[in-house]
Amino acid sequence: MFNLQALDLARMQFAFTVSFHILFPAITVGLAGYLAVLEGLWLKTHNDTYRDLYHFWSKIFAVNFGMGVVSGIVMAYQFGTNWSRFSDFAGPVTGTLLTYEVLTAFFLEAGFLGVMLFGWGRVGRGLHFFSTVMVSLGTLISTFWILASNSWMQTPNGFEVVNGQVIPTDWLAVIFNPSLPYRLAHMLIAAFVATAFFVGSSAAWHLLRGRDNPAIRTMLSMAMWMALIVMPIQIMVGDMHGLNTLEHQPAKIAAIEGHWQNRGNEPTPLILFGWPDMKAEKTRFTVEIPYLGSLILTHSLEKQVPALKSFAPEDRPNSTIVFWSFRVMAGLGMLMLFTGLWSLWLRKRGTLYQCRPFLYLAMFMGPSGLIAILAGWLTTEIGRQPWVVYGLLRTADASSNHSVAQMSLTLVLFVVVYFVLFGTGFGYMMRLVRKGPKTNEGAEISHAGPGLSATDDTVEGDHRLSPNKKGN
Taking the model in full, what pTM does it have? Predict the structure, then answer.
């Protein structure tokens, strides 16, 4: 298939499935926290706007949660089918960490999800709120274990290799490996920011179409407060993450910067734009700022950043890809911060909900958080190459022994099935978003039971399901 090797196809297949999967947990984490906040505000203030928003976004959460579970199961199977040598080598660590995720987070989510989605009006308010909080906590615990496993692959610690297999010697060192704190914080904040812009985009869409009510305004207001408050924190966390990466994976930083060679004792410039050429071993068409690379990455105007030519060619990540994926992530982050600052200016002027240029920006920024997450994931994973476990196991030595024909067929099948299955789910989720929140929906659910609120097809005053017309 296009002169690709089986290893290339296996990597493409895993990248494709992970790219789909990572979007769903990100929104799940953010929406779960958002729902907990909405229900808590409703219990505290008795403002029905929060209740109506809770029921609106809980439907979207349910669809997104289901797609995340399905796509995650496929990924787990791929470790055994396409990466069996990796599973054999690192299974005692990664397999155990993923087991902890199932035993803690997944069981917690599964135990309280039914009460959260279907218990409104059937259990007490306190118990329902507790269930929502437990589901939100479950998503955070799940993120912790997944990031612990992936971070260990980036910065392995607390082990020894015995007979070609990793054996843990210090579980605390394995779990709390050097990159976990930074990568966990960076990912969690990214999930909340991505959800905020998803919510804010929905609100902007409705406002641009003349649907202006307290629920829509609350959606936009909460989303923009999140962007304004959290984005500066994300930038600081990203800086600390970069310093940690420079310490443990200097080749990745050199590839991200497109920096091939230091010049004597000169500080390293920051290359804003350019085209890293892996064959020519240089970055073409550069636009750079002197000293700034050293200042950002070493917090010094004297120290130099490691250059790609300091590493053997076979140990260099693909700078062409990670150079641009990082800049997509960083550029969108700056644009998200700008959106939050603009919203503050409009809020003070009293025109946040009427300024159409801002509303168009907020609407088009809807997928920005998810795109930034994908770009960041590409930077992290491609920047780790050629290692699957950094410094221990090369990607070329981790794959299963499959033929090109087998990998080509399964890749095509994955692409077709994923676009049909998840495309349908995403389309349904967007249809729910376009309908917007309903007024007094929580009161209707409490009266009628949760079964009638599964979709918006049943509305107050609709007698299609009356006792004389049971649908048969």
Answer: 0.88
